[in-house]
Structures are given as C-alpha cells and as structure tokens.
# Entry
Amino acid sequence: GSGKRMTFGKTGEATLSQWMADNARVCWIEQSEPWDLESRLISQLDLPLNLDQNRHNAFHGRLKELRAQARQRARELPISS
# Structure
C-alpha cells in the first residue's frame, strides 16, 4: 500500500473478513441522534474491543497497550503491496 494506512495485507484482510463473516453479528436501528444511543450502549454493555468512551471496561488499558505494541511492530515491518 501507500504506507499511510495500516492493513493486514491481502491475505490477512481476507482472513479477517472470513473470521468476521463467521463470528461477527451486526444489527442496526434508525436513530435521529445515534451518538446518544452509542454512548448509552457503550456505558451499559460489555464491549471490550471498543476503546472510545469505554475507559470503564476492565480490558481497556490492556487493549490500548496491545494496540500500541501492534502499531509499533507494524511500523518496523516492510510495506507490502
């Protein structure tokens, strides 16, 4: 890629997409002010992979640390096309 955006490369993105198809669930509702609903849901549900507005989650600090380590490691790798 351009080196400006981090991805998992073609193989990694395909693997991630397949994992999401097998495991992730999505639903939606129309909401005139979705940011209000988002804040309420984040405060009430256990959403460990969401860092935004989620400091109360016990996994928040560890996930933030792991993501920082992953970004640093990715910066050390060559850019693939």
Summary: DSSP finds three helices and no strands in the chain. Residues 60-76 form the longest helix (17 residues). The two ends are 5 Å apart (CA to CA). The chain has a mean pLDDT of 88.
